[in-house]
Structures are given as C-alpha cells and as structure tokens.
Amino acid sequence: MSNFDHLWNRVGRLRKEMAVRGLDGVLLTDVERYGWENVFYLSGFRGSSAAVLITDDDAMLSTDSRYVSQAAEQTPFRVLVQSKQQTIFDMIEEMLRRHSVRRCGFEGETLSYGTYRRLSSFSVIWEDTDGMIPAIRRTKDDLEISTIVKACQIASDAYERALTDVSVGMTELEFSKCLEGHIVSLGGEGGWPDHRFIVASGVRSALPHGTASDKKLAKGEWVTVDFGAAYGGYMSDLTRNFSLGEVSDPEFLEIHSLLEKAHSAGAEAIAPGKTGRDVDFVARSVIDKAGYGDFFGHGLGHGLGVEIHESPRLSPRSAEILSPGDVVTVEPGVYIPERGGLRLEDDYLVTEDGHRRLSCDLPQDFRILSL
Where does the record place the Peptidase M24 domain (predicted)? Predict the structure, then answer.
C-alpha cells in the first residue's frame, strides 16, 4: 500500500457520490485555514491557502509559492502553482474552465459568504452538497483510527504528567497551559486548534464549558478538565476530575461514582444500528433514576475526527444511526448551579459487533491529590 492509497480511497468514495448527484466536480477551498478540514481529509495538504478540484478523471490542488514544496510532499494530487499575478480565485476559474465543469458541488458550511460571492460570478451551476463530505468523513479508516488512538495516548500521558505539576494557587489557565506543554513535549501538535481546554474548579465546575480562567485552584476543590491532543491532523477528547486534598463536599464523590455508572451504561449501548438517541437514553436514565436528571442538560456525546465536533451526535434529538467506523465521545455530566459539576469522557470506535474504547489507558477514577 502506497503512502497515498488512503487518500485515493476517499476520492473514490467522493466520486461515487458525485455520480449520484450528477456533479461534474467538487470544489474545496482553504482560505487562511477556513475550510482546511475537508481539504486536508481528501488531499492530505495542511497549508493555509488552497483550492482543490476533484472531477471524474482528475484531482488537482492549487496553492501559492509559499507551499509548493509542502504540497509536493503531502498530496498525490496534481499541484498547480499560482503566479504572482494570480489570486486563488483566478486559479479556480481556470481549473473549472480547463475541465469544462458546468455543475460543481461545494460544502456550504465551510465556505464564507465572501468566497461564495466571488465564486458566484463564474459560469458554473453551484450546488451545496449539504454535508456530503462530512458524511464520508464519518467512516474512519485504519489510519485514522490509529492516529486518534495515538492522540488519546498523548493526551492521557500529558494529563498524568500535569497532575504531578499542579499545586494550590496555580490558576486554571496555568494548569491548562502546563497540560498543553506536556502534549507538545510528548509529540502532539498541541491542544485543539479551534477550542480552549475546559479547566473549571470549585463552583466554576457547574459551567459545562467553563474554559480555563485566572481563578486559582484551592484546597478541597474539585477540578474538571476537558482536554485533548491534536496529532496528525486528528483530535482526542477526554474529561477527568481531580481535587487538591480531600473534597470539601462529599456529595460530589457520589456524583462521580454515578457518572462512572452512566458512562459505562452508555458505552455498552454503543453498537451498529443504534441511534444517537438510543445510546443517550441508556446513560441518561441512570442519571435520571438517581435524581440528577435536571442537572444533565447536554447530549451524551458527539463524533470526533479531524474536527473536535463531528457527526454523529449522541443526544435525545439524534436519529443518526451508528455504523462501523464512527468515532464518538461518551461524556455524561452533572452540573448543579452555584455548587459545581463533574463530567467523565472517553472516545469510542463503533465496530462491526459493538464498540472499542480508544482512550483506554487513562483511569476514570476521581483523583484526590496529596498536598
């Protein structure tokens, strides 16, 4: 298998969808990192400016002189270099004309309005493919799975190291940066490109998305840490909880035990053919029966891959059917206003006969750290 076979397999899947929709081509753009995910997924290119056009018999990538050598290394596509006088839109128009593209697909969710206005001036019938490529991205191949496993391992090891550095008086933001530093030292690209880590201590832990602040960590407070590593263009997403010394409110240790049970029940429900709401219901029922249902307001989980949030969703509203190759998070939580909250999260692969935990090396237990 060549280094690029996985990319050609993805292109093959896209071309089948193009034929079904009657498209002559599909255009993807990366304008200063806006829309990079689909460009990377199909071409392998990770620069900050590119246009990719895929037709029935050709696959080409246009970029500027900054990225010529990089593109040659990262993509098997034919590379077209913009001249000093050309813009990316000049090259797009030229590619469309050379291949007589009349009906061309694009992913509206990753295209800015300004870019769409420029493209609309071309003599092409544009069709929003409405999530076609994200749907293809759902099914992870072996290379993607191994990359996500590595991202999980890096994040897990970094968390263990960060726990040896934490102390009373350190701020949430300092802990977040400490954790990200360990991720980089272990070979990761850093944290999530477009999201900050959640580090929420004490009463702030009642905020499900309480990104790290300048609040200082205090003795007896519990800390919820939602974090992950970027590696090879893919993400991991984990949540763990610890305290500095004995917890001042023992009820939250009971809540953590409840979340372990809900997490386990939800994970065991993951299987091909189940809907997102099926899996969510199993975990949510555990929390509901314990009397904390009003304090679990978000969905149980989401897809994971090139982006930190992808399809499918695990939520009360999700009718998406799980299938082999999906990677999803399971992250039940309980958040009590003005008191605090906890969440417990791991990443799972949907397999032919059930599921496999990808983040299996990091214990789920609540850590009480010695002072």
Answer: 148-352
